[in-house]
Amino acid sequence: MVQSYSKFDSMTTDSIHQFLQDQHCDVDSLTFLAGDASARTYYRVYKNSESRILMVSSEDISKNKSFVEIADLLNVYGFHAPEVLAADELTGLYLLEDLGDLTFNRALQDDVPENLLYELGVFGLVEMHKSFLQNERNIPAYDITRFCDEAML
């Protein structure tokens, strides 16, 4: 049974439990992961012996749809964003591909040269920018207005 986390009410906990059961995931394997700069929370969960990421989003449905669209678009352009394996937009529950735990900081601790990491990061950003210039999905530009809106989280 999914533990009742203080962040979730019983309805959310029940929804998580049902969602994971519907996806044939081991509910008891749920492990909290550090989050990003959003209102989303992340958990690692196992389906058979493979790990997956449960994303719990309390954001509005339009932001969740944008998350899925951007992930799909990044994958189409050859970047590796987590594939959305299952989604329940009404409850804000998403089962994602697990990309692992390697961060830039961990890579540095494992003696990966810092300049190589920055070169790869800059190269990725340049390639992403080139790809999005051909934006046939009409994703809004990330301009100063949008930046200010998002900075006011």
Describe it for me?
The protein has helices spanning 10-22, 61-76, 104-109, 114-133, 144-151; strands at residues 26-33, 41-47, 50-56, 84-88, 93-97. Residues 1-6 have low confidence and may be disordered. 41% of the residues lie in helices and 21% in strands. Strand 2 (41-47) and strand 3 form a beta hairpin. It has 153 residues and is an alpha+beta fold. The two termini are 33 Å apart. The longest helix has 20 residues, at 114-133. It has a 5-stranded antiparallel beta sheet, with helices on both faces.
Relative helix content = 40-55%
Poorly predicted spans: 1-6
Order of helices and strands: HEEEHEEHHH
Count, helices: 5
Please list the strands of the largest sheet in the order they lie side by side: 1-2-3-5-4
Question: Kindly, what is the distance between the CA atoms of the first and last residues, rounded to a whole number of angstroms?
Answer: 33 Å
Name the beta content range.
15-25%
Write down the Rg: 17 Å
Helical/strand content category: alpha+beta
Shape: globular
Average pLDDT level? 82
Oligomeric state of the chains in view: single chain
Strand tally, please?
5
Summarize the main sheet: 5 strands, antiparallel
